[in-house]
Amino acid sequence: MVTPAPSLPKEFSQLSLTEAAELLAARKLPPVEQWHPERTGDSFMEIRADGSWFHEGGRINRPAMVKLFSTILRREPDGSHVLVTPAEKLSIVVEDTPFRAVEMKSEGEGDARKLVFRLDTDDLVMAGADHVLSFGSDADNPDPRLHVRGAIGNGLEARIDRALYYELVEMALAAGEEPPAIWSNGTRFPLVDA
């Protein structure tokens, strides 16, 4: 049985990093990478650039529905997105990224820093080797993203909201590294991708 992300037990800003890590460890997602059903089709759904979900042109206003659908979302090797169950695979249009990182918690400094992001689906993701931060290769036109799940380089990503990006830049500049970079969970992320 697929279950949507549980509501956070308290406001994200009030969670300690230990509590966030416990929530991350308890989260179980369906094994969508293992499902390859023969029946395919179109879901007539779309995730717009602002993170809103639509079905047949009408906005999906129930957060629980969006959370549920987000658990069965997968990116295909050709870059397209699908909603997949053991019985069927349905295409879904994704304008930009399927998720948005809307809140961030930082603990520690330098290479001991840990960053946890809350997505618009209430999922929590700790940046690190398995959940990389990328900022694009053009410092004048940053493209801040967080890898959420799936294969790195062709998985599901979250667009990091502009305000959070500026916080990350401030932290990186305060650290004084050249070139500027931000650390999380033992992994260094340059502000400009090589």
Descriptive account of the structure:
With 194 residues, the protein is α+β, with helices and mostly antiparallel strands. It has three helices and 14 strands. It has helices at 17-26, 63-70, 162-175, and strands spanning 39-47, 53-55, 58-59, 73-75, 81-84, 88-94, 99-107, 114-119, 124-126, 133-134, 145-149, 156-160, 181-184, 187-190. The chain has a six-stranded mixed beta sheet. Strands 9-8-7-12-11-10 form a six-stranded mixed beta sheet. A two-stranded antiparallel ribbon has the order 13-14. Strand 7 (99-107) and strand 8 form a beta hairpin. The protein starts with 16 loop residues before the first helix and ends with a strand.
Which SSEs are present, and which pair or pack?
Layout: H1 17-26, E1 39-47, E2 53-55, E3 58-59, H2 63-70, E4 73-75, E5 81-84, E6 88-94, E7 99-107, E8 114-119, E9 124-126, E10 133-134, E11 145-149, E12 156-160, H3 162-175, E13 181-184, E14 187-190
Parallel strand pairs: 1-6, 7-12
Antiparallel strand pairs: 1-2, 2-3, 4-5, 5-6, 7-8, 8-9, 10-11, 11-12, 13-14
Mean pLDDT: 89
Strand pairing plus helix content: what structural class? alpha+beta
Q: Give the tally of β-strands.
A: 14
Give the oligomeric state of the chains in this entry, treating copies of one chain as homo and distinct chains as hetero: single chain
Number of helices: 3
**Unreliable parts:** none
Shape: globular
What descriptors fit this protein?
alpha+beta; 6-stranded mixed sheet; 194 residues; 14 strands
